[in-house]
Amino acid sequence: MSRNNQNVKISRSFLTEKEVTAMVNEDNIDYASDPEEDDNVVTYDSDTEYHREIETRSGREYTTAPPRQVCRSVQNIVSFHEGLTSNASESFKKFITPEIVNIIAHHTNGEASIRNLKLTNTEELYAFIGILILMGANNDSELPIDDLWGKVLGKNIYTATMSRIRFGELLSLIRFDDKQTRTERRKQDKFCPIREVFYKIDELFVKYYIPSAHLTIDEMLSLFRGRCPFKVFMKDKPGKYDILIRMLSDAHTRYILKMEVYAGKNERPAEERSAKAVVRRLVKPLEGTGRNVTTDRYYTSIELAEELYNDDKLTLVGTLKSNRKHIPEEVKKTQGRKLYSSRFLFTDPKTGKAPVTLVSYITRLKPTKNLLLLSTQHNDRKVDESTEKKKTDVNLYYNETKGGIHSIDQMTRHHSVKRGD
Fold it and tell me: Boundaries of each PiggyBac transposable element-derived protein domain copy (predicted)?
């Protein structure tokens, strides 16, 4: 057999229903006997396919038979109630803490001193930040300041908080780092103008909210029209050229749990820039909690699924690129397959590796389009037979949980606090 072909072995991995009934009714049963010793007998699964063992060119072994699972694994058990933590009152100051505002006040006053303008304090900065958030909520960010403080379109809450002139001054003065040392620091860290404040806020997200059992990892592009050395181009995103932010969110509530800004290739070593390394960093605060993480084909791989399952006690569901390592040709083949048909492969339990389920689903004919999915949460061959498309449980779960970051992206664009003044 050539190297391009797979080693396919016929085995008797399951007893049929009739054989189980016969064994139960039989008085003398030899439990030490091995049913796999009879190589001439072949059993069938529910879809009348042979139970086969398949070995890929990389040495990974799969089987078409779903594994027998006596009890739920630790990776699929959650013991928490989602929602706010007990100390999440006064949420505004929980995330915009006095420590963070003091840092902003210190650097803003440094800029004010250089320009001989009035110094600010934490109380005034809280009011300033509150106005910005309210403008975003009211979709006022794109309106001119003169109109927002004017007699016709103006709103009392803005005029009662601070004057139009002072708001404009703070908008031009606000700083998040030491401007005097920025040039030197920027040689090593392009994100230095806001890194300290950004990651102090990021650390607080998971502190005051308990997410559900369903998480999502994806990226969004933050709109930015200024000069930035690490803006990226992504043709599938609305903004095309913007700042790339990878994030972990709750798939149901769309609550952001952790973020990571891509600040260029030189920010991290090559091994830390891989998709697998990004996912491991994002899920670190929630490792060992039995939750599931949904990812798209950029992040999903069999190695990542096994590491999350074994090391972090997390499951993974995601779409998969056909050129990823350890994927057998069995799930890539499309010739002769029907529209909306599915094929399943499962990690052979004898290998001792994490229970990975691979699904191949035909979404279109002429030309044939094959959707590959991976799951360590599902270990069966369930298909929704009530609909025409007959999607698998893995596919349905992925569709339900994949849109967390897309909703966040949409909300941040619709309620942006960024001003163009």
Answer: 88-419
